[in-house]
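INFO batch 0412 | record 1 of 1 | parsing
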Amino acid sequence: MGVIITLIIIIVVLLGVGVGMYNSLVTLRNKLQESWRQVDVELNRRYDLIPNLVSTVQGSAKFEQSTLQQVVELRNQAKALSGSADATQRGEIEGQLSRAVTNILVTAEAYPELKSTAGFQQLQTQLSETEDRIANSRRYYNAVVGDYNTKTEKFPSNLFANAFHFSKAGYFQVDDPTMRQAPQVDFQQLNGQTSLPPTPQPVAPPQIDFNQPGAGTSQLPQA
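INFO prediction complete | emitting tokens
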């Protein structure tokens, strides 16, 4: 009888430990998904601001059309990847988009009349705040990824992770080394001027499609 009671106690303890490990994995996975949704919210906020930035710059300054087109193309590529499970690929595109937007804002320093407009100042502030929120959300998400992946790899919780298909999550980070460099802008070559011409000739803006390709449904990236 004593042996049976001992076995029962051991089984109950093992079940309790197993349930605790499983629940901790579920908690971390839910935390991971929630932190990723917050990253996605901030990225989509930037997608919504970029068309307004391009339109404002087009109407107020003689920016190189290739520069504006590049921002639009990167924005559309990034938005199309919002449903992608490839965190590395999305991170690369988002990094390029951040740099392209920064280049536009830095180049705008050569146009005092543009800088003084309320619309541009508001967009500049909103984009700057959005970039800060993206960076903060990304750091928090990557921290959660680290905790979650450690839990799925450590013994004995890895046994439950493998049994119940708790797969590793991918980090969302910018690997482009140029993101660590300050944008280089030669103001002396911006159409040979540092302010808007007094009587600019009207130029028809290029047709830019902000809706293609379309965005997919957000998913949690996998490693």
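INFO post-check: Helices lie at 2-60, 65-80, 87-107, 112-115, 118-153, 157-163.
INFO record closed
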